[in-house]
Write a structure and sequence with these properties.
Strands 1-8-9-6-5-2-10-11-12 form a nine-stranded mixed β-barrel, surrounded by four helices. It has a two-stranded antiparallel ribbon with strand order 3-4. The chain starts with 8 loop residues before the first strand and ends in a 5-residue tail after the last helix. By secondary structure, it is an alpha+beta fold. It contains six helices and twelve strands.
Amino acid sequence: MGESPAAEAAEIKISFAGAEAGAAFEALALDRDEARHRVIHFWDRPERSAGDGVALPLLDRGIILRLRRDNEELETKRDADMTVKLRPCPALPTPWRESREGEDWEFRIEEDRTGPAFEAMLSASLEAEGKFGSALEAEAGSPDRMLIEPQLELLGLLEQLELLDLSDAGGPGEDRFDGLTALGPVHAAKWKEEWDGLPGTVAIEEWTTGQGLRFLEVSVRTAIAEAAEVQERLGRALRERDISPPAFGETKTRAVMTALARTVRL
C-alpha cells in the first residue's frame, strides 16, 4: 500500500493573467534582456468534451509532462530539462515518498500554495537535465526519447496504480507515447531577485503564447513551518511595489494547455 509523501518545503505563488500580468510587469520594471528565456512544451491527449470544450486526460489526473528548452539564440546556463510532475501527488510506495536525486536528475516533493486561497496541494516532480533537440523537433516528437529511466519507472508505477492509461495511446507498431500530442510553444522569461523580508530568491516568470495568453507568476520557496507567514510577506511586498494581488487565482498551466489544445485538429 502506498502512503502520501511528506513535503519539507512549500512554493508560494501569486499569478497574474492578461492585463493584470502586464500591469505587474510594468510595476516591477522588468527588463527582458536580463531574463532567462526558454521555450516550453507539454504533452497530453486532447479530446473533445461537451460543447466546444477540450479535455486533457493526463492533466485531469494530475500528470504533467513538460519540456523546457533554453532559447537557442541566447547564451544560457543549461540546455534543457524534461519533467514529470504529479499535482496533486497521490499516495506512493517506497522509495517515492521522499525527495532524492541522481546524476542529472532530481525528485522533489513540496507543497504548492497558489494565491489568493493558498490552499496547500502536495506535488512531486522528477526533473532531468539533458540535451533534447530543438523546440521544433519537440513539437513533432514523442516524449519517449526524452524521458530517463527513473521517469519511465515513475510513469510505469502510475499505470500500475491505474492513474495513467497509455495502453491505446499509440497505434500498431508505435511506441505507447506516440499517441500523445505536443502542446506548444509557450515562451517563458524568468528573473530571480532578492527582496527584503523574503527567504532566498524571488522568482518572477512570464508566459506568453501565440494565442495571446499572458501570465506573470511571482513565487518564493520556504519551509513548511514558515509558509503562512511568508505568503503574507509576499503579498505585502507586492503591495509595497504598487501591485495588488489578484482577487481570483488562475492556474497558468491548465489555461495555457487548454488554449494550445484548442488549436489541435482532433
